[in-house]
Amino acid sequence: MAEEPSLYQIVNVLETLYPLRYAEEWDEPGLIVGDPAWSVSRIYCAVDPTSEIVDEAIAHGASLLITHHPLFFRSVHEVSGLGFRGDIVNRLVEHHCALWVGHTNADSAHRGTAHAFADRLGLVDQRPLVPIHDDRSEFSVGLGRVGSLPEPTTLRELATRVARLLPETSLGIQVAGDPDEPVRLVATLPGSGDSLFDEVRASGADVYITSDLRHHPATDAWQQAKYETRLRAQGFAVGHGDATPRPALINTPHSAIERSLFHYLVGDVRDAIANRLGVTIPVELSQTNTDPWTFRMG
Ligand SMILES: [Zn+2]
């Protein structure tokens, strides 16, 4: 058996699949915890680096935890055991388990989060919602995805499909739109998507599937969609569609939809390590749902 690869080698493989140059300006993905000289024998994956996920990774004997969400979003002044983040860092170091984050770089990558979810929905003729120009890639990359369902369906049927694709959560999914309206062109941004309504509108999508839709942006987008149908009825060529407000909205739990990333990542990382480094490293995915809501009333 070949020698165990170093963390440095593994990180190089990960950042070939999910280049850090695709990350949004405010985002700092990549290697967060770990000595590049550590050896890697087992990889564990999850959407969120929560304390419970770190317990699981350590219990699995993982030498590397890959998460989608960052451990640190804002500036950090200490990693002491007085805070949960410091505790996570301390436990990871103690058990020689590194942490690598594939966040917006993984969202925008070929076979990244949005691409994986769009493929699971069966979208054809896909393109990024917000393209990134990358001379070094033969693929079209960028945030989110726009594509067509092979056959038109109803909003109700599409929402049912989305619910079946995602792990069951207490939050469930919410929809704005007429359940019987026909939909075909779909825009999706797995993650918090209410900053991209302009791009979605420009894409001409019939429906937008995302998560974390806040009251005001979602209400504004839906009000505008309904207003445009009134203008169209008066003969003004605004927006798109006919008597139907577009885009309809499907709001999903955040981590549940982003778990789609791992539908490709688990196999892609294992294969890329085997191809580039000549070793087979087990890559496992946590089955824990890390959306924070634990029950729902009403
Ligand atoms: Zn996210």
Question: Portion of residues in helices?
Answer: 25-40%
The molecules bound to the chains, other than polymers, are: zinc ion
Number of strands: 13
Radius of gyration: 21 Å
Outline the biggest β-sheet.
6 strands, mixed
What spatial order of strands do you see in the largest sheet? 5-8-10-11-12-9
Tell me what you see in this structure.
Strands 5-8-10-11-12-9 form a 6-stranded mixed sheet, sandwiched between helices. A 5-stranded mixed sheet has the order 1-4-3-2-13, with helices on both faces. A two-stranded antiparallel ribbon has the order 6-7. Helix content is 35%, strand content 21%. With 298 residues, the protein is α/β, with parallel strands linked by helices. The model has no long low-confidence stretch (mean pLDDT 95). It has helices at 7-17, 51-59, 84-94, 104-108, 113-121, 155-165, 197-203, 215-233, 254-258, 261-277, and strands at residues 30-33, 43-46, 64-67, 98-101, 124-127, 130-132, 141-143, 145-154, 174-176, 182-192, 207-211, 248-252, 283-285. The N and C termini lie far apart (57 Å). Zinc ion is lined by residues 69, 191, 254, 258.
Main features:
298 residues, alpha/beta, six-stranded mixed beta sheet, five-stranded mixed beta sheet, 10 helices, 13 strands, elongated, binds zinc ion
How does the SSE layout of this entry go?
Blueprint: H1 7-17, E1 30-33, E2 43-46, H2 51-59, E3 64-67, H3 84-94, E4 98-101, H4 104-108, H5 113-121, E5 124-127, E6 130-132, E7 141-143, E8 145-154, H6 155-165, E9 174-176, E10 182-192, H7 197-203, E11 207-211, H8 215-233, E12 248-252, H9 254-258, H10 261-277, E13 283-285
Parallel strand pairs: 2-3, 2-13, 3-4, 10-11, 11-12
Antiparallel strand pairs: 1-4, 5-8, 6-7, 8-10, 9-12
The structure holds zinc ion.
